[in-house]
Amino acid sequence: MHRRTVLTTLGASAVAGAMGVMQPSVLAAAGSAAAGSDRAAVGAGRLRQSVARWCYSRTPIADLCRLAKQVGLMGIDLLGPEEWDVPKQFGLACTMGNSFGTIPVGFNRVSHHDKLVADGEPYIARAAAAGVKQIVVFSGNRDGMSDGEGIANCITGLKRLMPTAEQHGVVLCMEMLNSKVDHKDYHADHTAWAVEVAKGVNSPSFRLLYDIYHMQVMEGDVIATIKAHLPWIAHFHTAGVPGRNEIDAAQELNYRGIAEYIASTGFTGVFAHEFIPKRDGAASLAEAVQLCTV
């Protein structure tokens, strides 16, 4: 299901914004947005910034890589195997591979484990061969399951993949998603729940993807939560709240402050932008990179 399912839930106007934001003059627009005295700072900060592929899905991958390079990013997030090798042609990295599972059908049910392991083992090896060091994975939906059972089942299933992941130096990152707006009934919808899974798996090849947008929707208290659980977090996603659009002054989160805090910890993972642009996508991305260059 990757991110296509997410787009389905957003409504026609949001999808149009997400899918049609890149104009023929995209690179010129990005250059203009990042020009002048501000441009020198882009890409020079302490955070390693990236952008999610699905938010620019109508933009050819090569054009998105050119834009990413121009605005100071170091990679592209959430690529499928067919695009894993493209960013390196532009001096970029694939910072997160798409999952071999789906959002609603994940590791919280033992009945899913055999297929997830059978699909995951060769997928992990293929990712490693392509230089992809992280793959997103999902808990699956609750469907009436208790939190305790879901945690235990995730630990059991993920542990089966850890020998392969550890052998290849690949980290599986479980993403926390909100179950209030975008992903009804998703199980890993609170940080504390996902941290219990990470503690139980207890492997350097399993960590968490903390999506700031999703966790603001579900629990708020973003910086304190990150501070309490940072050792388990390998990757961040951004988007404005509410709406999942630009991370600008029109939304409620202080992304400059969040970026400052994460950078102050010495975090060495990736800070990836996953917002759906309502305006020109290139300019919005350049502005987001600049805002979070700390």
What tags apply to this protein structure?
alpha/beta, 11 helices, 8-stranded parallel beta sheet, single chain, TIM Barrel
Write the layout of secondary structure elements.
Layout: H1 4-8, H2 12-19, H3 26-33, E1 48-52, H4 61-71, E2 75-79, E3 93-97, H5 110-129, E4 134-137, H6 147-168, E5 171-175, H7 191-201, E6 206-211, H8 212-218, H9 222-229, E7 233-238, H10 255-264, E8 270-273, H11 281-291
Parallel strand pairs: 1-2, 1-8, 2-3, 4-5, 5-6, 6-7, 7-8
Helix pairs in contact: 3-4, 3-11, 5-6, 6-7
Walkthrough of the structure:
This protein is α/β, with parallel strands linked by helices. The chain has a single domain (4-291), classed as TIM Barrel. Helix content is 41%, strand content 14%. Strands 3-2-1-8-7-6-5-4 form an eight-stranded parallel sheet. Helix 6 (147-168) links the parallel strand 4 and strand 5. Helix 6 crosses helix 7 (191-201).
Structural class: alpha/beta
CATH architecture: Alpha-Beta Barrel
Estimate percent helicity: 40-55%
Mean pLDDT: 89
In the sheet with the most strands, the strands line up as 3-2-1-8-7-6-5-4
Return the domain count. 1
* Low-pLDDT residue spans: 1-42
CATH domain class? Alpha Beta
Overall radius of gyration: 18 Å
The oligomeric status of these chains comes to: single chain
Specify the overall morphology: globular
Percent strand equals 5-15%
| SS element count, helices | 11
Largest sheet: 8 strands, parallel
Q: What would the CATH topology be? A: TIM Barrel
